[in-house]
Amino acid sequence: MNLERERQLIARMGARLTVERDLRDFCAHGEIVSALAVLVAKALGEDEAFCDELAVAGMLHDIGKLELADVIYGHRDDILAVERSKYVRMHPTLGIDVLRKEGGYSEEIISFIANHHENCDGTGYPNHLEEDEIPYGARILRVCDVFAALVSNRTYRAAFSVDTAIVEMIEDVREYDMRVFLAFLKVVYGPEFAPVKELIDKALTIEVDETPLVEANAVAAAQETHAGDRGEE
Ligand SMILES: [Fe+2]
């Protein structure tokens, strides 16, 4: 699957970011979620057309955050963590507008992105959907997104190992589609995981930006929201 168009869109919108590391993190996270989601979909027996849509949705799932780059990545000390978190919660819906404006993205792709923070137990956002009210592709993205965040460095914590990340996820397993979660486990402990592990290891070499302000904000945000604990917002 060629994701050049999606990489260009991220680069164009990512020009709004002021810290280069944020853009590199954003791209690395998109690449990991995209590659992993395709493997999980394949393990679930999905066809190539579905996998291609998921590859695109995985790459662009957080694109709405770049619409709010100033608030989310602006490293501003005049925005409270609770306020920032309110804006972060708008990003799945903002992603719909970005993709509609860009054109050429299917309604399936748009629905996967719009619902990638919904949890099967109804604790997600923006609409607190449950189980199969959540589009199938979004349920796959959810598992991959949480995992990708856990195995990445955050300003307020070091990356978890793969095994620790899985233990963390098992604690919250009610949030995930069980069939998807089992396929995900099979992938992570199977030989096909190697290229994704390479992407994860490469992302860990991105230098940590030592901006105290960001750290302070992030710690506060982490304490406020459950999603913040996992760093996947
Ligand atoms: Fe997201």
Task: Give your account of this protein's structure.
- With 233 residues, this protein is mostly helical.
- It has a single domain, classed as Orthogonal Bundle (Hypothetical protein af1432).
- The chain is built from 14 helices and no strands.
- It has helices at residues 4-14, 20-43, 48-60, 63-67, 69-73, 81-88, 91-102, 107-114, 136-150, 162-171, 178-188, 194-203, 212-224, 226-230.
- Helix 3 (48-60) packs across helix 8 (107-114).
- It is globular, with a radius of gyration of 16 Å.
- The two termini are 27 Å apart.
- Mean pLDDT is 90; it is low at 212-217.
- Fe (ii) ion binds at residues 61-62, 91, 116-117, 233.
- Fe (ii) ion binds next to loops.
Number of domains: 1
Average pLDDT rating: 90
Which class of secondary structure composition applies to the elements? Answer: mainly alpha
- Given this structure, which CATH class is correct? Mainly Alpha
User: CATH superfamily assignment?
Assistant: Hypothetical protein af1432
How helical, in percent, are the residues?
55-70%
Order of helices and strands: HHHHHHHHHHHHHH
The Cα radius of gyration reads 16 Å
Question: Which shape, going by the Cα principal axes?
Answer: globular
CATH architecture: Orthogonal Bundle
Number of separate helices = 14
Report how far apart the termini are: 27 Å
Number of strands: 0
The fraction of residues assigned to DSSP E strands is under 5%
CATH topology: Hypothetical protein af1432
Largest sheet: none
